Each structure stands twice: as C-alpha cells, then as structure tokens.
Amino acid sequence: MTAPKRVDVPIEGAPYPVLVGTGWLDDLLDHVALPDGVGRVLVVSQEPVQEAGHLGPVVAAFEAAEVEVHRYDVPDGEAAKSAGVLRELWEACAEAPLGRRDLVVAVGGGVVGDLAGFAAATWNRGIGVLQVPTTLLAQVDAAIGGKTGINLPQGKNLVGAFHQPLAVACDVATLATVAPRIRVEGFGEVVKYGLIADPDLLALLEDRAEDVLAGDPELLEDIVLRSATVKARVVAADEREGGVRAHLNLGHTYGHAVESLTGYDEVLHGEAVAIGTVVALRLGVRLGRTPAALADRAEQLLDRLGLPTRGPVLDRAQVWTTIARDKKADAGGVRFVVLDDLAEPAVVTPERAEVDAVLDELGVIDEPVEEAAPADA
Ligand SMILES: NC(=O)c1ccc[n+]([C@@H]2O[C@H](COP(=O)([O-])OP(=O)(O)OC[C@H]3O[C@@H](n4cnc5c(N)ncnc54)[C@H](O)[C@@H]3O)[C@@H](O)[C@H]2O)c1
Ligand SMILES: O=C(O)C(=O)C[C@@H](O)[C@H](O)[C@H](O)COP(=O)(O)O
Ligand SMILES: [Zn+2]
C-alpha cells in the first residue's frame, strides 16, 4: 500500500481532497482528517458492498478512532434513490441520533452517494458527509462535486441539493469486486471527460481498451485520477452550474430520459449516458458543429468498451415531456451539450425538429416523422 494521491477540489468556502490509491481503506483515517467534535457516524451502504468486504475496514477505522458507528443498508438499485428510502435514512439519523457535528459516511456506488449525501444535506439542516465511492462511476464522477438527490417517477434527480463532501476517499482496489456490467457503465462517464476536456484520456482508452476492460489496477488508478482532476477543476470553477459545469452533462439530456422512461431499472446510468452521448454528438454533426469523424470515433470507442450506442425504442411524446421537465430545460428550450471539436464542449438549444431528426436517424423513436422535402423538390 502506498499513500493515496491527492486531487484538490478548491471550492470557495468548502475545499476538500479527492484521495485516490489502491488498498488503503484500512488506513482511511490516517489520510482523512475528521473535523473536531465528531462523536457518531451513520455509515450508509448496500448489501453487495458489505458482502464484498469493503464496509469492514471503514467501520473499523471509525471504531479505532473511538467514534460511535451506526449502520444503515439501503436497498440495491436506482429505485433506492427515492423519497421513501430517504425518509428511512432520516429516521436512522434520528435513531442514532446524529447531531450537528456528526457525520454521514457513504460507502458504495453513486446511488448510495447521492442518497446518503442528500440525507446529510438535509438532516439537522445539513451535516458533514464523507464519500467512500466503491464503483468506477462513483469514483470518477458521482462522489465528487456535491450533487446529491433522489429521483421521481417523473424524472431523474429532480429533488436534491448541492452539498460538498468533507473528502472523497477512492480505493481503486474496491473496483475488483464490482460486477462486469457495473464496471463497464462507469466508462460512459470516463469517455465523457475524454471528450469534453482530456484528449490524452480518450487516447489512453483507445490504445488500451482491452487492458482497461481487464481491470488493470494501475491503469484504473490513472483513469480515476485523470477523471477526478477534470471534475475537480470544473466544479471548482462553477459549483452551482451557472456556466462550465453544464459541460459535465454531455449525454445526459437524452440519457436521463432513457433512464426514467425505462423505469430506472433496465438501463444503467453510465449506459444511458453513452446512448445520450451518441445522440448529442450526432446532433452536433447535424447542426454543423461537430466533425463527423469525431462522432464516429466516440461511438467506436463506446462500442469497444462494451457500452450501448443505441437506446431502446421510446415514445416521442414521452421523451419530450420528460426532457422538458429536466433541469436542462427552461423557457428558452431544451439544452444539449455538443462538441465543436475534441475538448471544445458547447451548450446549445436546438430546434425540436433537429433533435427529432437525429432520433429518427438512430432508430430509437416510434412514429418517425418525415424529413421536410426541399422547397424545390
Ligand atoms: N452526483 C453526481 O454528480 C453523479 C454523477 C454521476 C452519476 N450519479 C448517479 O450515480 C448513480 C449510479 O451509480 P453507480 O453506477 O455506482 O451504480 P450503483 O450505485 O447502483 O451501484 C451499482 C451496484 O454495484 C454494487 N456495488 C458498489 N460497489 C461495489 C463493490 N465494490 N463491489 C461489489 N458491488 C458493488 C452496488 O451495491 C450496486 O448493486 C446514478 O443514480 C447516477 O444518477 C451521480
Ligand atoms: O456533476 C455534475 O454536474 C454532472 O452533471 C455529473 C453527471 O454525470 C451526473 O449524472 C449528474 O448527477 C447529473 O446532474 P443533473 O443536474 O443533470 O441531474
Ligand atoms: Zn452522469
């Protein structure tokens, strides 16, 4: 075990580190400084994480520090990001009871992190949260940046809060026990970072796709570090998504619609992001902004990594209702992130007909609309 490497997230008023290493959870509290006065923690996790052996070291670290540990396992799957389970977590906070100086500790994937983070953001009007992400997606993305929340049947992440963690502790060794489909979906977000900000990361994924998929630990550590570096820079520049943070939403406008219209069960978040990325890139090509070769390149990489590049066939009206409810829509229209070139993201508000044409071209919508015939035809 070597000491974890550190990426700083210099958010004004709430700076914190993302610590990335391999096999260091046993020494968690040697590297994460606890704030003064922490007497109790509520460790929130899920059964598969416990069964894989990742909870024990975290609990042991707090016990060794003479902090009283309470535990709550939430159900598995995206369905846990719900008002019902959030209420259960509040009640677990009350049972402990957690005071203003106590902490929530989220040990798991993005579902646990988003949900436990929101419980911490709201309990006693906000207490600290330590994020210990154990999936690739959570280490590269979900645990960093302070977006917390739950879903509604009407849409993804519709209720939530910005609540920055005290620290993000990424032990890449935990990724070895993740199911293959879950590992692969994380690359949906990693490809996103490559496309919006880090051409070297994109090239690394292309050059070493097989090693990446085989779970080469050194490579994974490098990928987590590079991804965390991009995310840290973006969220520190724009914590509340007034500007550049919106670029982290590449692939999410259509992706979120795919997730909610398939009941959050069928298509995983990273898979939906891959599907939505193809839509966004093809839209960029159609709008004359994205080079077609770049869209082809991204699609080939997603496919090589085992990610879907086409979503299930959806109902057009439902897609538009869902997209219009997302945070990426306002009176001005629906926003998509496109690429003007590699590492040159831009936010656009396209005409609905342009998006419809792309969805028809990709064959992912029922009831195709005819392209308008040229005026002189
Ligand atoms: N807040 C953000 O900025 C942000 C960013 C990206 C995604 N997200 C959210 O993250 C969620 C998806 O997260 P996810 O992809 O991590 O899925 P997930 O949290 O559902 O985890 C997937 C599965 O892996 C299991 N698991 C976790 N770690 C394990 C380990 N080390 N070994 C064995 N099993 C393990 C979990 O118990 C679960 O069954 C979505 O809700 C998405 O919206 C949030
Ligand atoms: O951190 C961000 O900002 C992101 O957009 C990261 C996304 O990968 C993530 O899925 C996020 O939860 C989406 O945010 P939302 O505000 O569109 O729900
Ligand atoms: Zn995402």
UniProtKB/TrEMBL annotation:
GO terms for molecular function: 3-dehydroquinate synthase activity; metal ion binding; nucleotide binding. GO terms for cellular component: cytoplasm. Signal peptide: none annotated. InterPro entries: Dehydroquinate_synthase (IPR050071), DHQ_synth_AroB (IPR016037), DHQS/DOIS_N (IPR030960), DHQS_C (IPR056179). NAD(+) binds at residues 76-81, 110-114, 134-135, 147, 156, 174-177. It comes from the Bacteria. The keyword Lyase applies. Binds 1 divalent metal cation per subunit. Can use either Co(2+) or Zn(2+). It holds the Pfam family DHQ_synthase. Keywords: Amino-acid biosynthesis, Aromatic amino acid biosynthesis, Cobalt, Cytoplasm, Lyase, Metal-binding, NAD, Nucleotide-binding, Zinc. Zn(2+) binds at E189, H252, H269. It is found in: Cytoplasm. Its EC number is 4.2.3.4. Its cofactor is Co(2+); Zn(2+); NAD(+). Residues 73-181 form the 3-dehydroquinate synthase N-terminal domain. GO terms for biological process: amino acid biosynthetic process; aromatic amino acid family biosynthetic process; chorismate biosynthetic process. It is an enzyme of class 4 (lyase). Pathway: Metabolic intermediate biosynthesis; chorismate biosynthesis; chorismate from D-erythrose 4-phosphate and phosphoenolpyruvate: step 2/7. Residues 186-329 form the 3-dehydroquinate synthase C-terminal domain. It catalyses: 7-phospho-2-dehydro-3-deoxy-D-arabino-heptonate = 3-dehydroquinate + phosphate. Gene3D superfamilies: 3.40.50.1970, Dehydroquinate synthase-like - alpha domain. Catalyzes the conversion of 3-deoxy-D-arabino-heptulosonate 7-phosphate (DAHP) to dehydroquinate (DHQ). Belongs to the sugar phosphate cyclases superfamily. Dehydroquinate synthase family. This is 3-dehydroquinate synthase. The lineage of its organism: Bacteria, Bacillati, Actinomycetota, Nitriliruptoria, Egicoccales.
